[in-house]
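Example record used in the benchmark description.
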Amino acid sequence: MSFQWKTYIDFAERLHQESETFAETEACQRSAISRAYYGAFGLARKVAVNEGLTLTHKGEDHKNVEQHFRGSSQKLRKQIGIELNRLRRLRNKADYDDLIPKLPKETIKAVTLARKVEINLEGL
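Model output (C-alpha cells):
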C-alpha cells in the first residue's frame, strides 16, 4: 500500500495544536510547516503524475508539480499551484531560516494552505 500523504497534513495539524505542550515549541511549529508542505506536495504530485507529469526525482520536481497546476487555464488548478508555491516558501523558511517572525501565525497559515490544497485536489 502506498503512503497516504494526507497523514502528513493531519500530523502537521496535531503538531501545531499540541506545540505549546512541548518544551520544543518552535521545533514543533517548524516541523508542522514542513510536514504540511510535504503532505500537500505528495498529494499534488500523485495527481500530476497520474495526469502525465514525468518526475525527475530531483529538487526540480517541486517546481514542476507547482507549474503543472499553475500553468492551467482552470481557476481551481491555478489556485493549487499558487498554494503549493506559498507552502514551499513557508517550508523553506521553516527549514533554513534561523529566525522566523510570527512563527505561530506562519504555522497556522501552512496547515490551512495544506488543507486547501487537499480539498482543491479532491475537487478536480
